[in-house]
């Protein structure tokens, strides 16, 4: 039987018991999953440590869990991918957050490009989606979701912070192999919106010397492209 995993906001202290007062988590445990005293769970506070515990007391306002075992899992090995998708329609963007969290993307940096139709992201909703996806895929850390900025502002920040390994996904007749990116410690990858990058976007890429990669001339939907390239880099 699978042991349920829960990300909690508080940092877990070095004590034999863990007390949780978050009503949403308690509701999920008590009323949705119907956990009982003695049932095993895994609690995570985003530090990369699994706290194996057992339900001791499940009350509406406050619940207590006995700490059984601590397991540290290093998720810092391999490539760190910062996915930079131009904002797309709500349901498609949320799908990207969910699937790319499962794949192992480290952070999401939504940008507003020339052809972006939506300019806002429901941050609280986005955080719930990545939290649930991380629990489901048994990640020990949560990806970071950054506030949306314009494409130009994002690229300016990259240059100011001397960030390297910045790439933009393009679709052209010549396929550009992406396998060499896997050997990097970190990669920043920009994915265009519905309709692709506009002329002004392309000028910005040239201005800031953003390197291009391509999967070939076959055109993918914006959300498909995010998942396809993330999979190639993180899972292959």
How would you describe what is shown here?
With 236 residues, the chain is of the alpha/beta class. The strands form 3 sheets. A 6-stranded parallel β-sheet has the order 9-7-6-12-11-13. The chain has a 5-stranded mixed β-sheet with strand order 1-3-4-5-2. A two-stranded parallel ribbon has the order 8-10. It contains 6 helices and 13 strands. The chain has 2 domains: 69 residues, Ribosomal Protein L25, Chain P, CATH 2.40.240.20; 155 residues, SPOUT methyltransferase, trefoil knot domain (Alpha/beta knot), CATH 3.40.1280. The two termini are 29 Å apart.
Strand content: 25-35%
Spatial ordering of strands, largest sheet: 9-7-6-12-11-13
> What number of domains?
2
CA radius of gyration is 20 Å
Q: What's the end-to-end separation, in Å? A: 29 Å
CATH fold-type name of the largest domain: Alpha/beta knot
Shape: elongated
**Helix coverage percent:** 25-40%
Q: Give the strand tally.
A: 13
Indicate the mean pLDDT: 89
Classify the secondary structure makeup into a structural class: alpha/beta
- How many strands, which pairing sense, and closed or not: the largest β-sheet? 6 strands, parallel
CATH superfamily of the largest domain: SPOUT methyltransferase, trefoil knot domain
Q: Which architecture of the largest domain would the CATH scheme give at its second level?
A: 3-Layer(aba) Sandwich
Helices and strands, in N-to-C order? EEHEEEEHEEHEEHEEHEH
Quickly name the level 1 CATH class of the largest domain.
Alpha Beta
Q: Show unreliable segments.
A: none
Q: Helix tally?
A: 6
